[in-house]
Design a protein that fits this description.
heterodimer; A: alpha+beta; Nucleotidyltransferase, domain 5; Substrate Binding Domain Of DNAk, Chain A, domain 1; 3 domains; B: mainly alpha; 2 domains
């Protein structure tokens, strides 16, 4: 059996690690770089390149360079977030027949999971080169707030990459595991994880080798990308005003400004002010060429991104409330994700939690290290067993009921694995099938939540209404993935159903009847 | 290695008894124990019983068993960790709605389970054997076979109300079913 690796599959950057002789080793590429951009570039007629090579292509061919695929994975079109992503993205985003998202590059279509699979293969190869042996098993991390669709799609990506996915692990939990590894203390830890595309907060109780998540909350569309787009929007306004040319719809200009915004963000982490210059940003049809030039200081930048920072704290308060804790009961605040390198974030977090955040861990590598520890735990039980991780489900699971309401079956922050059973009754005489729609989210209205899947139980005995009862059990496993099993309560027959992540697949709706439910 | 085997046997036994255990028994506690004991017991049992620890390399059947035991442990802790929900649970427990002496509880559970799920209606091994055959007959709409097998099952458990109820149904269907062709009860799930 080869080595099982841990992969932090990030929105912007990815990192791979394994435990060797009891210590985590982060694998570097041939040039010694310890993280790789999660970017896949398609060249004309050639095969795709991934990582740093792909990043180089971003500036001159953004339309055939896929960045931030993680923001699309397991999502359907139509949501506000996806529409925003479509507007910002230089490459094409379309939708397939079943409403699933696709990336269009040079006339070819890819699912976001396929793009992520390319990144995973790249990480796997880096590990194999360093280890000198093939790798077949991995723990892959996801944002804690990812729903079932997003987790399932990530699992699919790992399978496509030729990896047996030992576990889908939550990023903040992985970070806590790496942080608490061999510490042997009892403490409450808050993990503030602001990455390239997502934000998570998890509150854990660590007792030596026992890691228990008490509560988690997050926003899967809030990350460093959004800071860059917010600053780029400001640059765009400045440029349009100073040049007198309206280029608000020009994607290339937008990409260049985003890149400039990212550089400004990096520069402001050490300097008090930065001069931003983009030479020849735009050339008009009549041959006039415009440069972009401005100066940004920390205070101005902070003003631009303050609403985004405040959003992270709203999410933090939500998690604390769910954990029934105050900031003062938190012993340590752990910073994870590249964004938390910035002084602006560090200072704001210190202010909000009334204590200086812990800076002993490397925010870019700690998640991959945690994933590697868990991979080791799951493959080396004979050696006495490693730490035990107890995670929770980030979002409530429910079914649609009469009137479009969503009835919760498993509340958010319930420890996994967990199971809940519900009895469904037919609502009409001679009804022979029952349609069940499963959602994840906190809204009382089903349509405001994320649809995970719909399934139809058919072949029920035609009887007066209410006489046919079907018991359906909903399980959330250790990966946070939902399984649905239907048990015919008349005869005890049982069928397992997996809610397919691509379950935008339309159900023949015509015969499917609504039904109401009574007990449980 | 020996201790691992013992743990597996323990988990399988817990799984068999699962329906009859209350949340305190599941965590190895006594009703009325101090609240901190509950946290401690959960951590001890969690370390011992977590599926990641016990089922690596095990057969899928055992994984499922370990998983369902741990789901119950999780449930127990969710209810007992919060003083409000624990208080409510304790009241139910004291009122005997959740537990009785082992014998009475078993009978009550069998009855309750049978109301929802006829597959759990049998109380004796031999009765169960014929009952299982009878259910098979019913699902095939073979009512002659069903009547015969329920008759056998009743000979081992003459007081079983569920058997009697289904005997009546099977007899009625037998008469009625003479017209109806026996087809298998297709129970399909479409995604």
């Amino acid at each position: 059996m080869g080595v099982a690796i841990g992969i932090d599959l990030g929105t912007s950057n990815s990192c791979v690690c394994a435990i060797r002789d009891g210590e985590p080793i982060v694998f570097a590429d041939q040039e010694g770089r310890r993280t790789q951009p999660s970017i896949v570039a398609f060249g004309y007629g050639k095969s795709a390149v991934v990582g740093w090579k792909a990043r180089r292509q971003l500036l001159y061919a953004p339309e055939s360079t896929v960045i931030s695929a993680k923001r699309l994975i397991g999502r359907r079109s139509g949501s506000v977030e996806v529409e925003r992503m479509k507007a910002q993205s230089a490459y094409g985003i379309t939708e397939g027949q079943a409403g699933e998202l696709q990336v269009r590059v040079q006339g070819k279509l890819f699912t976001p999971a396929e793009i992520s699979a390319h990144v995973l293969v790249h990480m796997k190869k880096i590990a194999e080169a360093a280890l000198g042996e093939p790798v077949t098993q991995a723990v892959v991390t996801v944002p804690a707030y990812f729903n079932d669709n997003q987790r399932q799609a990530t699992r699919d990506a790992a399978t496509m990459a030729g990896l047996e996915c030992l576990r889908i692990l939550n990023e903040p939990t992985a970070a806590a595991l790496a942080y608490g590894f061999k510490q042997g203390k009892r403490q409450h830890v808050a993990v503030y994880d602001l990455g390239g595309g997502t934000f998570d907060i998890s509150i854990l109780r660590i007792d030596d080798d026992f890691f228990e998540v008490i509560a988690t909350a997050g926003d899967t569309f809030l990350g460093g990308d959004d800071f860059d787009y917010a600053a780029a929007d400001q640059f765009m306004e400045l440029f349009c005003q100073s040049s007198g040319v309206d280029v608000r719809d020009n994607r290339t200009v937008r990409m260049k400004l985003r890149e400039a915004a990212e550089r400004a963000k990096v520069a402001l982490s050490t300097g008090e002010a930065v001069e931003v210059i983009v030479p020849a940003l735009h050339r008009t049809g009549d041959g006039r060429e415009f440069d972009f030039k401005t100066t940004v200081d920390r205070f101005t930048y902070a003003q631009w991104v303050l609403p985004l920072v405040q959003r992270t704290f709203d999410v933090c308060d939500d998690a604390l409330k769910a954990a029934n804790m105050s900031t003062r009961q938190i012993d340590h605040v752990l910073l994870v994700g590249g964004m938390t390198r910035y002084p602006l974030i560090r200072e704001s977090v210190a202010g909000h939690f009334h204590k200086a955040p812990n800076t002993t861990v490397n925010p870019d590598e700690v998640v991959a290290i945690g994933a590697a520890i868990q991979a080791w735990n799951l493959t080396n039980l004979e050696e006495g067993g490693g730490s035990v991780l107890l995670d929770v489900t980030p979002q409530s699971l429910g079914v649609r009921t009469v009137g479009g309401f969503c009835e919760t079956l498993i509340a958010r922050n319930t420890a996994v694995p967990t199971e809940s059973t519900k009895v469904f009754h037919t609502a009409f005489d001679l009804q022979t099938e029952v349609r069940i729609s499963v959602y994840q989210g906190e809204s009382r209205m089903a349509d405001d939540n994320e649809l995970l899947g719909e399934f139809v139980l058919e072949g029920l005995a035609p009887k007066p209404r209410g006489q046919v009862r079907v018991r359906v059990s909903f399980e959330i496993d250790n990966d946070g993935i939902v399984h649905v099993r239907a048990v015919d309560s008349v005869l005890g027959l049982e069928r397992a159903i997996r809610i397919e992540s691509r379950s935008g697949v339309p159900v023949e709706a015509s015969q499917a009847r609504p039904f109401d439910d009574i007990d449980f | 290695m020996d201790s691992r085997l013992r743990l597996r046997i323990e988990i399988e036994t817990m799984h068999e008894l699962l329906a009859g255990l209350d949340y305190y028994q599941l965590l190895g506690l006594q009703l009325g124990c101090p609240q901190p004991d509950i946290d401690a017991a959960f951590r001890t049992e969690g370390r011992r019983l977590h599926p990641d620890r016990v089922s690596a390399g095990a057969a899928p059947e055992f994984r499922a068993v370990a998983n369902s035991v741990f789901k119950a442990v999780n449930d127990a802790y969710r209810v007992l960790r919060d003083p409000d929900s624990r208080g409510h649970y304790d009241n139910e427990l004291r009122a005997g709605r959740l537990t009785m002496d082992a014998e009475a509880r078993k009978a009550a559970e069998a009855e309750a389970a049978a109301r929802n799920d006829p597959t759990k209606a049998a109380r004796t091994e031999k009765g169960g054997k014929f009952w299982k055959l009878a259910l098979g007959n019913l699902s095939e709409k073979d009512y002659n076979g069903a009547v015969m097998n329920i008759q056998f099952a009743l000979s081992f458990e003459p007081d079983n109300e569920v058997f009697k109820e289904w005997m009546a149904k099977a007899r009625a269907s037998k008469e009625e079913g003479k017209k109806e062709k026996a087809t298998s009860n297709a129970y399909k799930i479409r995604i």
